[in-house]
User: What shape does this take?
Amino acid sequence: MHPVELFELLVAMLLAIIALHYAAHRLGLPPAVALLTGGTLLAFVPGLPVISLDPELVLVIFLPPLLMDGAWFIALGHLRRHLIGIMSLAIGAVIFTTLVVAAVAHALMPSLPWAACAALGAIVSPPDAIAARAVLQRVHLPRRLSVLLEGESLFNDASGLVLFRFAIAAVATGSFSAVAGLESFILLAVGGLVVGGAIGAIWVLLVRRLGDDYLMIASSMLVPWSAYLLGEAFHVSGVIATVAAGLICGWYQHIVWSASVRMRGTAFWAVMIFLMEATVFMLIGSSLRGVVDRVGGFAVVLDNMAVPVLLILLALTAARFVWVFGSDAIIMLLRAMGLRRYSPVGPRGATVLGWAGMRGVVTLAVALSVPESVPGRDFLLVAAFGVILGTVLIQGTTLGLLIRWAGLSDPIHDRPRLSMSDAEAAIARVQAVRVEQLAYDAAGELIHPQLLERYQRRAVLSKNYAGQEEQFADRLHAHFDLVLEAIAAGRAELLRLHRAGDIDEHVLQELERDLDLEELTAWSMKS
Assistant: This one.
């Protein structure tokens, strides 16, 4: 393909992403579903080139920044609190699902070697971080379930990739050692933590020295790829290295980044992650044509592979439910025995956890990386793609409905000690005290009366508002509706002054930024 044609294809894909996202928004569908469907349909448009993905390149380009973004914003305190539950899903559920899928695949296709069946299980067992984010960011879950799913999606790719590598090695050598596999996994995980910790620490120490907002933001963009590539270069887990670096950078960005860097950086990352997530699902759909052509067309897929793929999809879904409900049952048994440190998520919470198992780009990329010499490679590819389509199109479209049906809410012990209004009142109180300390000169004369009055008034209002949000809701909304109207009037006048030539571009940008900050604050307070 000519470079100009490749660029034209990228522009067309961007236009398709915007159109499909808009259609999903209007139809009330998860964008991942619309993008995957759109990419699949576009793959069979006559005249369009066949998309051929390089699996290693796909993982390197897309996985590190998406993992970094998830780790950057995850609640670290909740991550530590629910670490055992996360590891149960990220390691235990992945291993259990791999074994179940391998057994079912071998029962359906006895000619397929056990090692190849295990490779298929490892390919489809870990739910995908990208697919989970794309669906979960548009639904509301209790904090515990959200952290469990987000944490699982950050770590389970490492488990799946390690299992896959050992399965492929077993295909080549004809033998497998569980002890050697466990030792290797521990080495890969610990090594990944060390590499990621080092990259994160270096960024924290050096980012302030850059002295420029855009350089700081650009440096944050290099962190995930640096951690991933360095981890892989040292033959440890690049996934865990990226997650570790993201956790450290996300924890310290509140200290090393100024407010302006954070606003610009957050906006930059939001757009980049949006485009990457959308591109991933478009590429997954677009690659279907190549997979179908490789195995001989849709007729071959429907006649020889459709039923086994459907049964494998049912098996891995059932395996996840068995693991989740089994783990919850064990917790309830331990509580009955007097060990009350951990609480079960309950039948409805377990149902949501079991159903939230979408697969995505990692499953496809790993399937495409299966060596040509592996028996049944074509079936592995079709099965992986069938699992992606089935989980995203079925679970992705129904997860929101299931969550609403479950009617879940945070248990009292898992809720934060202070509400947002309580925290605002605490901040306002401290600010008022500090302003009062500095509002007088050395002779005791009040030199900042307006500031003192403003902060004291804010402290009183915040204290009165805390805990009585519903009582003040209507007045508060009316207040900020008026604020937004005033901002809109000010923005119109600012543009009029600029269009009339009364102010230059610099004044326009500075005042517009002030109005933007004021508008964002008003919308935040109103919501």
Notes: The mean pLDDT is 83.
